Amino acid sequence: MKYMTSSAGVPGITPWQDTWYKLSTNHIAVAGLLVLIILITGAVFAPLIVFHDPHEQYTDILLAPPFWHEDSKPGFILGTDDLGRDIFSRLVYGARYSLFLGFVIVCLSLLVGVAVGAIAGMKRGVIEAVILRMMDIMLAIPAILFAIVIVAILGASLFNAALAVSIVLLPHFVRITRAAVITEMSKDYVLASKLDGSKGWLLFFRVLLPNISAPLIVQSTLSFSNAILDIAALGFLGLGAQPPTPEWGALLSASREFIETAPWTVTLPGLAILITVLASNLLGDGLRDALDPRIDQS
Amino acid sequence: MPQLLLRRILLVIPTFIGIVALTFFLIRLAPGDPILLIAGEHGVSAERYAELQKQFGFDQPLFIQFADYLSQVLNGDLGLSVVTQTPVLDEFGKLFPATLELALIAMIVAIAIAIPAGVLAAVKRNTLIDHSITAISLVGYSMPIFWWALLLILLFSVNLGILPVAGRLSFIYDIESVTGFMLIDTLLANDKEAFIDALHHLTLPAIVLATIPLAVIMRMTRSSMLEVLKQDYIRTARAKGLSEFSVIFKHALRNALIPVITVIGLQTSILMTGAILTETIFSWPGIGKWLLEAVYRRDYPVVQGGVLLIASLVILVNMVVDLLYVLINPALRQK
User: Fold this and answer.
1) H runs (alpha helix) in A124-263
2) Is A152 on the interface with B (CB under 8 A)?
3) Quick one: CATH architecture of A36-291?
4) Is the pTM of this model over 0.90?
5) Inter-chain touch B307–A267, beta carbons under 8 Å
6) Which of A39, A125, A242, B217 is the least crowded, having the fewest Cβ atoms under 10 Å away?
């Protein structure tokens, strides 16, 4: 048992500072955060980092191997694909799709999920029962299958894939919000605020939301990694990003047939997905430990 | 307790009707005329259009259409595949054993490795063993399995050439389908070579499909064991002078397994998601591949029926797991 695992209750320290303190002592979570920051920076400043346009086809340098091979071509550090496009450039630009879409998907899912969950938790009764049943129905259909069906109906595109994934992630946010709202509603500070005249959305945003944000933050981080995996899976199945978009899943799908002749075209995009998902899962786990008061004394 | 069980069983009914409604409205949400979608890309004559409209009941009010669909579903009629013109339920029944065989083997592999590994990690807390097991579980949990499948193919099929990349059995063997489970059918045919061949075909898809359940169950076993090992009754058991083996396996593990069983139940949905990707990559003739192909071909009755059947399966398994949970949990049993 460590002593000084928490600075909660120390005067002058806000809950956010306390969380940050606990998170910063968790080296693995910090590593995840650092990797994510590097990836985001890379995605934002992509044009400054890469040497080639991701769509430029160098037709005389097809399927060049990465730098650790003897036959690698200078300037193409991770080699080229079957059309002579620079793989490094495509991966860096691909990060833009995965990270940006992951962010948008989680925001959308969080926004709608919190609103629906809040209604369920505050209104109770029939409305709550109907909402919960609807979430059960959505959860009964396996995630990727549900997303595939939505995309099949709306048509295969990156936008529709993102929409489908945010619908698939929705039930988790609804359930967490509802459960947290119900717990908080029975507490005295909420009663005091109600007596003070707060009600409806004002009560929710001003009083409840700040107190239920911890589980929502954790779920958002974990949903971010799920969103990236699902978008990549849809891209791989040809139902998400369409070629020549350098989205990681689509890159993998396009390079599948070169697995024997140019295995690096398959290994590299997958590695990019794995690293990103792993980093955000590590951060999510760290945040869960830092924000969950039950683990405080362990 | 009977009330608790009954309530849980009754709860399945509205969920099931909701899933029927969802699959029903699915096809009607698609942009464009559903009849033209059902008829396929080649278009239809005016006569055929009217015929199809009548066949699918699109000339009726929406709620009558839904009532008809619901009664059809309850009678086991899920319509015909647009492509093959065979009943959707028959196609599902024919392909399901392949998926079930793969999923069962994957689950057995996952549980057989994950529970001992999770226990080991908890007992050897904060040692190199624990850190390695936790790291494996984290990577497994974050793994894009479609890429993992390609990596395994690259290693075992392309580079080493020891495992096949597609299908359930090599073409040279002709095995009569009795149970639909290739491992059992080859044994029934008393063809040892075919059995080994089937096992070879099963290895890579099973590893891929087992990866995520393995990671999740390992993690859950570890944290559940850590929780239990802190309890007073474990200290009592140790104080009584019981052997460490007896403390861990008889006193701790049996209690730690309760949440693990719930997590195992939740894997059904994950296995079905995994089956779509795994079966597509390994050309495994199961329902995952069948459904995805139906999506590509816009075979809406198959998509509708397939989603309904898979979702029903998931709610059924979840219900059974919930009931089991009540039965094995002493705290709930007494209520």
Assistant:
1) 125-140, 143-154, 158-185, 188-195, 200-202, 209-236, 248-255
2) yes
3) Orthogonal Bundle (1.10)
4) no
5) no
6) A125
